[in-house]
Amino acid sequence: MGESATGPSGAATEESPEGFGARAGQWLAENLPEEAEGEPRTPAEELAHCRAFQAALYDAGFAGITWPAEYGGRGLGQAHQQAFNDAVRDLTPPVGPFVVGLGMCGPTLADLGTEEQKQRYLRPLMRGEEIWCQLFSEPGAGSDVAGLQSRAVRDGDGWVLDGQKVWTTGAQHSDFGAILVRTDPDVPKHQGLTMFVLDMRAPGVTVRPLRDMTGWSVFNEVFLDGVRLPADSVIGEVGQGWAAAVTMLGHERVFIGGMASRRSDALSFTALAGLAVERGVDRDPVVRERLARLYARQRALGLFTRRMRQEADAGRPPGARGSVAKLVGALNDALAVELSGDVAGPTALAWDSADTRATERALAVNGAPSSSIAGGTNEIQRNIIGERVLGLPKEPSADRGVPFRELRVGTQRSE
Questions:
Q1: Collapsing DSSP states into helix, strand and coil, what is residue 161?
Q2: pTM over 0.85
Q3: For residue 263, with 0-12 CB atoms within 10 Å meaning exposed, 13-18 middle and 19 or more buried, which class applies?
Q4: Phi and psi at residue 160, to the nearest 5°
Q5: Which candidate in 15, 130, 221, 252 is catalytic?
Q6: Each residue of 64-108: pLDDT tens digit?
Q7: DSSP readout, 32-95?
């Protein structure tokens, strides 16, 4: 079945995926802003710039492509989404503030949210009017997410939330967050969790930036002191937060794996092969072999994530297989970092300040180690793949069946 060639609010002529992709490419060529010379934008100006582009993208019909039409999406198939992905693959649209919402929180709301939540949150999320973050990790609960200690206790019809989260991407400019907290400490740790919609501007929410070795403050720590949550802020069901978290992590791992295969990245095969030609090392047999290996791995990951999206569109969620995409993406990043040093040579350490590509490459190298941690460490992904994909025996777990209140995990102390 074909789809409309107009934006979300109108339907005129039916359109094939090929026509949709061609129209997307033309729109991007005409509307993707070029980086302006002169003084860099302030953070507020950059955020406004991103919001304006995301709104224009949505109004043109190129955001929320596969999301349900009744909630503001286009309601198209995966073939149309892939056509758009192909059109934007070599470009860098200013959509960074929205990737967590579009890649993780929004799809989880679409899967588990109430009708009211979908009607309230999905369209503003797609249009960039509201920015979302994900609040899972804590100082004492990183890889062991189920060991988290932030708690929400009932207070009348609502809840009161206290605790701390850390490594929260984009929290500093988020309007809402999907937060996982403990609502019952008297059952085993995986059973007493609930996911909520958190208003990031609510009284009691404090966001503090964390600067990493790129020099940026993408991550944040978030303090929660007596934050009131309404009863209708539950995502899914009370006590079923682990299932909601698994759903979101599945979306996250496919999303992260897909991001790792973009050809526009400074550590992509395309970028490094071009650099090898510029520096005259493209005939070096070692460099050629490593470039070929990187190409094969990045291409395989791109095809794998495409297949999972097609299967999800057909009603088969990726489940634990999302860990494969996430793990391969992290391993590809490590391979690309090693190769970038061989190709760049001395320019990997020092370069002309006017060489923006060298600057981008250095930032990518410094940021690459985070891919082995974000969305679950490589070791956690291997456990998931072994147990849930390959069917290998589970690792021993001494705390299964033990009420969380009785555990001494993370920073938890005797009560």
A1: strand
A2: no
A3: middle
A4: -125, 130
A5: 252
A6: 998 999 999 999 988 898 899 889 887 889 999 999 999 999 999
A7: SPPPPSSSPPPHHHHHHHHHHHHHHHHHTT-SSTTS-GGGTS----HHHHHHHHHHHTT---S-
> 280 Cβ partners below 8 Å, 6+ apart?
none
Q: Is 252 a catalytic residue?
A: yes
Sign of CA dihedral 402, 404, 405, 406: positive
- Whether the Cβ atoms of residue 80 and residue 20 lie closer than 8 Å to each other: yes
Q: Are strands 193-199 and 176-182 parallel, antiparallel or unpaired?
A: antiparallel
Cβ atoms 200, 135 nearer than 8 A: no
Q: Are 335 and 269 in contact (CB under 8 A)?
A: no
* Two tokens, residue 255: 């999303």
Q: What is the largest CA-CA distance in the chain?
A: 71
Task: Report the alpha-carbon distance of residue 217 to residue 389 in Å, rounded.
Answer: 35
| Cβ proximity of 339 and 348 under 8 Å | no
Q: Which residue has the tokens 């070029």?
A: 34
